[in-house]
Design goal:
The chain is 36% helix and 18% strand. The chain is an alpha+beta fold and 625 residues long. Strands 12, 13, 14, 15, 16, 17, 18, 19 and 20 form a 9-stranded antiparallel sheet that branches. Strands 7-3-2-11-21 form a 5-stranded parallel sheet, covered by helices on one side. Strands 1-10-9-8 form a 4-stranded mixed sheet. Helix 2 runs parallel beside helix 11, helix 6 packs antiparallel against helix 8 and helix 12 crosses helix 17. The relative contact order is 0.12.
């Protein structure tokens, strides 16, 4: 007799999406089961052992502000932290941390083990159970049957996964781990369409075989920045990364091996990530380049295993090793394993609503790489939203949806369900039209109140945010009311290379100058310095938040006005109001796209590729009638 279990929510897959989904659902009171193939590889960093990066760091800050776990786990296991894009404005600043791969897994396991209402079952889901268009549970490889009101699929690269190294092919979802071979078919049985994507990972190197003294050192940063808004240090030893470069000799060997490259001999048919290409793709795409930068990054605090960022490859292993040995610092290279590519199934994300619930099967939610994305952060952000909505679905509440001016996660999900994907989707700041509003420093201001009202953010987190909000407002108010006289500051202003004052002004007005920051202003104003020095905690974080709000006030307000105009279109609900096939007032392409996507609002319709502004105007006229 099969083992039977009953839960509110079942989460299938223990990667970054699955872990956030399971925690979020349980925190909202749903009895939750996380089904994973290997409890010792929960939240495994299949590729680079790093979190964050351009736009991705903002997503992790948003996950943390919402009460998610990724930021907390990252800070606890970080071995190098850097704030990227510091040379640009604060809308572009993006945190990134190199993590200890092993400790990351066990810190996540600790978070899961201590989440009330969350159980873990080690098994492999083979079948989705559906009755009358509504999910009823799952059945596993070992015959367990789990009944549930909601199911969240976060299977990553495991669905019919096929790995490639040269002409060798091995079925698997990750190196040394089996593929899931029947779940895709079980899901597609209900009208959900699937296609294939490809991703890859680089060679892993033994640090003892590398001539590190011949490489450039890349140090981390040691200031107050981190991922979680909750207080807490980075406890692990902070380590160094190194930089080296390929050269023409490396490229010659790689070109000779292209005939055996799965990407170029027809073996791999699916599309890989445009913005994280393999080294062989770089050679073909940029034939004039004589070198490509590579980063050698530690996998952990104590291990000799190193990750060679920038050398993702599925070339034959002897070609990979021989080519790398032409780099002077790697001439005596010893590898733990070669790089490889993996093909896997994903599902058409336009068949999802903004809650990440399937339009075909009620109670079925999908998150992560199964929706056509790439990256731990994109997966985790989707997982949190899917987990929240899976829990809400059990009680019949209103879905939790974020708008494009509210979070990068909102941009990500809207892009997926509105535009679909034809290559692995990766987040960039350029994808967000409101990126001045979506900074890494203000994720708590944007999202903590919503998360607390939902029951996702703890009382401690909410109080932490309220205290910070009050202190930031106090500093801004002080700068707004404090007057500055020319004779008090002109000598300093001239030394900074900026125009002296002819008349008095408020302190906040000086911050608008590029040469003046809050540190400079504190030197000029003892009362401001005293106010910041007397803050009970997080002085630097609070000062930075206040400075950004004051210095970029005009830009922020202007972008908020643009966002509010778009909200008017968001408020015009159109789902179910139009027979698109018979709308002769709009183009044939628009009819076809609108019929397929069936957007909820006029704003979503305006973002569908192929729907023109004139089509939107025509729909506005029809709505008016």
């Amino acid at each position: 007799m099969n083992h039977k279990m009953k839960y509110d929510v079942v989460v299938v897959g223990g990667g970054h999406a699955g872990c956030e989904a399971a925690c979020a659902a349980a925190r909202l009171g749903a009895q939750t089961l996380l089904v994973t193939m290997d409890m010792n590889k929960i939240a495994q960093m299949s590729c680079n052992p790093a979190v964050g990066g351009i736009a991705k760091g903002q997503i992790v800050r948003e996950i943390d502000a919402l009460g998610g776990q990724m930021g907390i786990v990252t800070d606890a296991t970080a071995i190098q932290f850097r704030m990227l894009n510091r040379s640009k404005g604060p809308a572009m600043w993006s945190p990134r941390a190199q993590c200890d791969r092993g400790k990351f897994i066990w810190k996540w396991r600790e978070r899961l083990d201590n989440t009330p209402g969350l159980d873990i079952w080690q098994d492999q889901v083979e079948e989705l159970l559906v009755k009358d268009g509504e999910v009823t549970g799952v059945r596993t490889l070992w015959g367990a049957e789990v009944r549930a009101k909601s199911v969240v699929i976060t299977a990553g690269t495991f669905l019919n996964g096929l790995m490639h190294i040269g002409r060798c092919q091995v079925r698997g979802g990750r190196i040394a781990e089996p593929a899931v071979e029947h779940l895709t078919e079980s899901i597609c049985r209900h009208g959900i369409t699937t296609a294939r994507m490809k991703t890859g990972t680089p060679v892993r190197i033994d640090k003892r075989s590398v001539h590190l003294e011949e490489m450039e050192i890349q140090e981390g940063e040691h200031d107050f920045h981190k991922f979680s808004f909750l207080d807490g240090p980075r406890p692990l030893k902070q380590l160094t990364c190194w930089i080296c470069y390929t050269n023409p000799s490396v490229h010659d060997i790689l070109r000779q091996g292209l005939a055996d490259s799965p990407l170029y001999n027809g073996q791999i048919q699916s599309i890989g990530p445009r913005y994280c290409p393999s080294i062989e793709t770089k050679l073909v795409t940029f034939p004039e380049r004589e070198q490509h930068m590579l980063f050698l990054e530690p996998e952990g605090e104590t291990t000799n295993e190193m990750y060679l960022n920038g050398f993702s490859s599925s070339m034959p292993m002897d070609v990979q090793i021989e080519a790398l040995k032409k780099i002077p610092a790697l001439r005596d290279l010893k590898a733990y394993r070669p790089g490889y590519a993996i093909e896997y199934d994903f599902f058409d994300p336009t068949l999802l609503s903004h809650s990440l619930e399937s339009k075909k099967v009620k109670g079925l939610f999908l998150a992560g790489q199964v929706n056509g994305t790439t990256g731990y952060e994109e997966a985790a952000g989707q997982g949190l939203v899917a987990g929240v909505n899976a829990a809400i679905h059990c009680g019949g509440g209103k879905p939790f949806v974020m708008h494009r001016d509210e979070s990068y996660i909102g941009v990500l999900i809207d892009d997926l369900v509105t535009k679909g994907v034809d290559e692995p989707y990766r987040m960039f700041t350029s994808r967000a039209e409101y990126r001045i509003l979506l900074r890494q420093d203000d994720a708590d201001a944007r999202l903590t109140e919503r998360a607390y009202a939902l029951g996702l953010a703890s009382t401690e987190r909410h109080q932490w945010w309220l205290q910070k909000k009050q202190q930031v407002e106090h500093i801004i108010a002080l700068c707004e009311k404090t007057s500055i006289k020319p004779k008090e500051v002109n000598t300093r202003l001239e030394a900074l290379g900026t125009t002296p004052l002819h008349y008095g002004c408020k302190a906040i007005d000086l911050l608008g100058r590029p040469q003046v920051n809050l540190d400079v202003l504190q030197d000029m104003l003892p009362t401001l310095k005293e106010a910041i020095d007397n803050l009970p905690n997080r002085k630097e974080e609070i000062a930075e938040a206040a400075e950004v709000l004051m210095k970029y006030k005009g830009y922020i307000e202007r972008e908020r006005m643009v966002a509010e105009k778009m909200h008017r279109l968001e408020n015009i609900k159109i789902k179910g109001h139009f027979d698109y096939q018979n709308m002769t007032q709009i183009s044939i392409e628009a009819r076809q796209k609108l019929q397929r996507i069936n957007p909820d609002t006029l704003a979503q319709a305006s973002r569908i590729p192929g729907v023109s502004p004139s089509d939107i105007n025509a729909m506005l006229v029809l709505i008016g009638r």
